[in-house]
Amino acid sequence: MWLTDQQKIGAGLVSFGAFFLFLGIILFFDGPLLALGNVLFTSGITLLIGPQKTFYFFARKQKIRGTICFFLGMLMVFARWTILGMIVEVIGFINLFGDFFPVILNFLRQLPFIGQLLNAPGVSAVVDKLAGARQSAV
């Protein structure tokens, strides 16, 4: 699968956004880092899948609660209510992107070291429960 230059930039922005969000949480909810991470993440998503698809993704009727929570959390982070804003934002993120967790879990299970850890007997059941992965009948 080949990515266009715009999609490569979008993937980089999403990666940097996730890094700054992680760093902002590690550094005791540092507001400027969280705000920068939010801006980079949302602009990266827009470049990665395109503006029209991004709008349709966030405006879907079944995802409107997640969209409101996600952007309300971002506004709260910008207003320096970082801890409460991140809690609201995480709730919105789970509502928006929760459908992708089983796909991500299956991808991670195919990686060399992480896959062995995720397929361990005790860990596998817990991770399946958290990700909402469905067990196949076969």
Automatic annotation (TrEMBL):
Record bears the keyword Membrane: yes
Record's GO cellular component terms: COPII-coated ER to Golgi transport vesicle; cytosol; endoplasmic reticulum; Golgi cis cisterna; Golgi membrane
InterPro entries xrefs: Got1, Vesicle_transpt_Got1/SFT2
Annotated compartments: Golgi apparatus membrane
Major subcellular location class: Golgi
Keywords: Golgi apparatus, Membrane, Transmembrane, Transmembrane helix
Similarity annotation: Belongs to the GOT1 family.
UniProt cross-references to PANTHER family, sorted A to Z: CGI-141-RELATED/LIPASE CONTAINING PROTEIN, GOLGI TRANSPORT PROTEIN 1-RELATED
Protein name: Putative GOT1-membrane protein required for ER to Golgi transport
